[in-house]
Every structure is written in structure tokens, then in C-alpha cells.
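User: I'm putting together a small comparison set for a docking exercise, and I want a reference complex before I start. The sequence is below, and the ligand is thymidine-5'-phosphate. Could you produce the 3D structure with the ligand included, as C-alpha cells?
Assistant: Of course. I'll restate your input first, then give the C-alpha cells for the complex.
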Amino acid sequence: MQKKEFLYEGKAKRVYRTDDPACYIVEYKDTTTAFDGLKKEDLVNKGVLNNSIASLFFAMLHNEGIPTHFVKKLSEREMLVRALQIIPIEVIVRNVAAGSLAKRLGLTEGTPLNSTVLELNLKNDALHDPMLNQYHVQTLGLASAQELARMEELSLRTNELLQSYLKKRQIILVDFKLEFGRFKGEILLGDEISPDTCRFWDAGSGEKLDKDRFRRDLGGVTDAYAEVLRRLLEVK
Ligand code: TMP
């Protein structure tokens, strides 16, 4: 597989074409951002850790029947993926009240949610990723009703799989964000699953093992990401 021209740069990743039009190479950067890019720092090795962590999650989900864009890990920072047409919707799944949900609904962070909460946000930093419902998705023509239903189904199944996978590793899956895209008439899970896009709490101490360490200036960001990777590799 040959790396061809640079295609797109996001906040945490770069995307390149390959000699196969159906595949892209994603390169994970050390750049870490929060608050729609307002807070930004390069954290040494963060991209390497996230590439490894996301590769393990995608491989597990693939084995459990979730269609994802992941093909294989190519190098420390590179992953080969299917060339998706990205749907600009962020699907957020929540098991425990935290972050913007805790703020919006006046819940104490850490309150378990009685039932899983699924939210849709428009992927648009300039508008601060506003929340969408199915009517907004329809009127903006972002996805068909059928596609949205499939995205929601895959998100809830991914939640079940990730929750039990992480529980075995003493990690509570508080919430996470997923993105999807179209590929040959199918909806595939795309983007990344990593401590940048999830909230992971240590099951014993409640210690944060995710990007909230960066957002809230708690320090030890990459140490926490490395601890997540260590636990994923430790339990087979
Ligand atoms: P929130 O509580 O800030 O809405 O975040 C919910 C989850 O989604 C959390 O695990 C972090 C993740 N997330 C992203 O990956 N990208 C984003 O742009 C936002 C706002 C949240």
C-alpha cells in the first residue's frame, strides 16, 4: 500500500490517499485540542498511543460484528482505513452523567443514568457542534431516516461491547463519541475510539483516564492514555 497525496487535516489526525481509491491512510498526531480547538497542545507520543488504542478497539468491534472502517494498523502512527464518505454527525452515547450532560441537566458528575442516553451533534466547530434531533438531520439532509436508525443501532451495540470489554479491564465507560460514514452502500463506524473521544474512569478509584485530564488541567494526560493501553494489552 503506497501513501499518496495529503487529503485532509483534522485537529488530531491527517488523512492521505493511497494507490487504492477505496483506502485512506490516517496518521495520528500528537496535537490535543479541547473546546473546539480553543485549547491546544502537542503531547509527546499521544498520537502513537491513540493509534494503538483505536486499533485494538476497532479489531475487537470487527470481531463482534460491527462494520468499521479499520483495515489494519500500519505503523506507530498510521492506520489503513476504508475511504468513507463521512456523515457530519457526532453520535454521543452516555452511561454516566458527566461533561455537558451533567451541566445541561444539572446532574452531579458520576450519577449513573437510568437508561443509556444517545445524543446527536452537528460536526461543526464554528457552530460549537450544536445538538441535533432527527428532524434537524432530515431538514439538513445529513442522513436518511434509515441511515440514522442504523447509526443509532450500531452505536448502542458498540456501547454494550465496549462497556463489557472495558469492565474486564477495570475501566468504566462513562460516555463516548462516534462518527460514521458511507462506503459501498453500507454505513461503517469511522473516525477513532480513544481517550480523546471517550470518558474512561478507573473502576476502583474513579480516576480519569481520558482527555478530561487535558480539558481540566489535571496533568498526567499521556500517562493516563498509556495506562489505558497497558490494560487493553494486559487482558486478552
Ligand atoms: P461532552 O460531555 O463534552 O458533550 O462529551 C461527551 C463525550 O463525547 C466525551 O466522551 C467526549 C466526547 N467528545 C468528542 O469526542 N468530541 C467532541 O467534540 C465533544 C464535544 C465530545
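The pocket of thymidine-5'-phosphate is lined by residues 92, 98-101, 129, 175-177, 197-199 (CB under 6 Å). Residues 3 and 18 are 5 Å apart (CA to CA).
User: Thanks, that's exactly what I needed.
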